[in-house]
Structure formats: structure tokens, C-alpha cells
Amino acid sequence: MDEAVHSGIAFFIPLIIIVTLLLIPIARILRRTGHSRWWCLIAWIPIVNIIALWVLAFVPWPTVDKN
After folding, report:
1. Burial of 25 (0-12, 13-18, 19+ CB in 10 A)
2. Do residues 41 and 20 lie in contact, with contact meaning Cβ atoms separated by under 8 Å?
3. Whether 59 contacts 51, CB under 8 Å
4. Is residue 44 part of a domain?
5. Domain extent at residue 9
6. pTM score of the predicted model
């Protein structure tokens, strides 16, 4: 059982680091563009994340397109 605990820790520590390095900057970019920060969770869904990037690129950005 001790090995299972160590392998679990060895899995979750890099996962937490990756989440921090990816999701925080994505959330900040989304906030600056006026979109919900919950969109950053889409970054973890394969194929959907690519589609979401295309949607984000072409929808109006509320903070930029106020005119």
C-alpha cells in the first residue's frame, strides 16, 4: 500500500504544476478579453479545445469591440 501512495503523489504533483502553468494564464487572457474564465477548462478536452480557440478568435471580444 505504501507504493500506491507514493505513485499517487508522483502523479498528482506534476498534474498540479501543469494545471497551474496552463490554466492560470489562459484564465487571465480570457478575463482580459471579457470572456468567462470557465472557458479555460475547455483547454483539457481534446479536439474541443481547438474548436474553442477558433470560436474565440472570431467572436467579438466585449472589452475590445465596445464601439
Report:
1. exposed
2. no
3. no
4. yes
5. 2-58
6. 0.62
Report residue 31 as a C-alpha cell. 478575463
- Distance of alpha carbon 33 from the chain centroid: 15
Nearest to 56 by CA among 22, 19, 64, 46: 64
- Helix, strand, coil shares of the chain, percent, nearest 5, are 75, 0, 25
Q: What is the pLDDT of residues 3-60, one digit of tens each?
A: 656 677 788 888 888 888 888 888 888 888 888 888 888 888 889 989 988 988 888 8
Q: How far apart are CA 21 and CA 54, in angstroms?
A: 22
